[in-house]
Amino acid sequence: MKEGRKRYVVELRKQLDRLRELFASKNENITFDVALQIYRLVHTLKGSAPMFGFVRIGDIAEKLVQQWEWAQCQESISSTNTSVIAGFQTTVSEGTVWLQQLAMELDVYSQELDLDDKQDQKLLQGAALAPGCRLLVIDDDEVLRSYLVRRLTLEGYIVDDAHDVAGAQKLLREFTYDLITIDLMMHPQSGYELFEFVKEDPTLKWIPLVVLSGRSDIHDKVRCFYLGADDYVTKPFQYEELSARIYGLLKRTKNFEQMAFRDPLTGAYNRRYFDHQILAELQRIQRYPSPISLAFIDIDRFKSINDTHGHHIGDIVLQGLAHLLQNHLRETDLLARFGGEEFVIVLPGVLGADAKKVMETMLQHTHAGPVAQYDGQAFHITFSAGVCEWSDGISVAEWIRRADDAMYSAKQCGRDRVLLYADDMSAALSEVSAATETRKKTVLIADDDRILRSILVSKLQHLPVQFIEAVDGEEAYSIIKGQHVDLCILDGVMPRLDGFGMLEKLKREEAMPDELHILMLSGRSRDEDMSRGQQLGVNAYMNKPFSMVELEFKVKQMLELA
């Protein structure tokens, strides 16, 4: 059947060429015989095309048959040449539009057959851009509009269409488009009416706009370019040229967007784009009132990831989280990297309480598995998030600050949670105050010098931490194995088992807790000791005697208390 369809298309092209020749007959060549040839050709198409699945061609041929029926009826009637010519010219004039549509349908069917042969849309010109690219075709010519929609769809684009300005405006409010084609001469409103709507809307003004016009007047072209058109194509045009122009505009736009508006590390939008788009979203809801919420996200204990594994691992974790978030957001949501390990998400049309649920679902996804893997090691994270719904009258800076305050409160409440901003955030904090007290940071001081242990406890007791003491490496090892410890201040040289030996034992048994920080104290300043400590997971190294101010600073930094 497929081979038969291909052969039929070849014959169909010959028949179409013959019809064009007959339609173009000059007066001296117009006879009943010419009209009958046309009638018989279109009658044959009407019967044969549907047999091969070309239903639309059969429908068009039927309309042509009805127009040329007069030729068969008058075959045996004597008529003057003048009446034949008049009837012929009238029918040609009325049938030309169907002949053009017949050519378009044949073109589309040919494309479909080519796709069947290739079975790989990546060979099409637009394939590299097509996934996710949504186009809007605006034209009151139903035949041309339908043709463009089908051809562009075959290239892999998502294509919507509208026959007038009002319909286009409705679609532009509902969907996000990558490119618009628009006819200038439409009824009841011209395409110029849409220029103002698109180019004065901050959310639409950057969308590439291609004008399709039957007028080649230079003044029209100049006016369109001044109004913001990106390209101007005069009808009639070759589809291949239009396709190439669309591809070029999309490719250029995507490249520009990647350079100007994307964070190069994570692929999320950057702060510059966020600042522009948040204003555009707020202008939109001023015209079309609806809720909108903002989520502020900060990765928990991200600094320890960089300190323990290096900044390249931190970068991989950032990429992993951005990918996770983007995969679970709607097309209309906006994810941007705000700075460092902070992300913001704009959720149009979402109430604050619902946005909190969305972010809690995101948080559950981080619990489900690692966000990144490197060299066989998996990296798990959590984040703290604050959510704030927009309220009329506040500035963008105040809106962001409120979401940030809610995020900070989530950190204070123990991290790994989402809080919705309230005018009095102390209420949220009070709910977990008791639990927070029981989760004070635990600091293990492992040193055989009792006086030094006493001094350290005395100097650090003002911090919100609890202390455990160990006199040697063996005791410290047992404590770490038996309970949660956030920070171990570890002497390098101790009886029974020194600090290095304890770390080697934990590493050998794969019992080193992921969140344990190590601050090693040593009376020796040898480079090999420092190198050995780094290999065993030591986060910081201080030589005795040391400054208590510096030590307190390091403790607060490692426990994220600073």
From TrEMBL:
GO cellular component, one term: plasma membrane
GO molecular function: diguanylate cyclase activity
Domain GGDEF: residue ranges: 290-423
GO biological processes: cell adhesion involved in single-species biofilm formation; negative regulation of bacterial-type flagellum-dependent cell motility; phosphorelay signal transduction system
InterPro entries associated with the record: CheY-like_superfamily (IPR011006), Diguanylate_Cyclase (IPR050469), GGDEF_dom (IPR000160), HPT_dom_sf (IPR036641), Nucleotide_cyclase (IPR029787), Rev_trsase/Diguanyl_cyclase (IPR043128), Sig_transdc_His_kin_Hpt_dom (IPR008207), Sig_transdc_resp-reg_receiver (IPR001789)
Source organism, top-level taxon: Bacteria
Entry keyword set: Phosphoprotein
The keyword Phosphoprotein is annotated on this UniProt entry: yes
Modified residues (Phosphohistidine): 43
Every Response regulatory domain range: 134-250, 442-559
4-aspartylphosphate: modified positions: 183, 491
Domain spans labelled HPt: 1-102
Protein name: Diguanylate cyclase
Naturally occurring in which organism (per UniProt): Paenibacillus foliorum
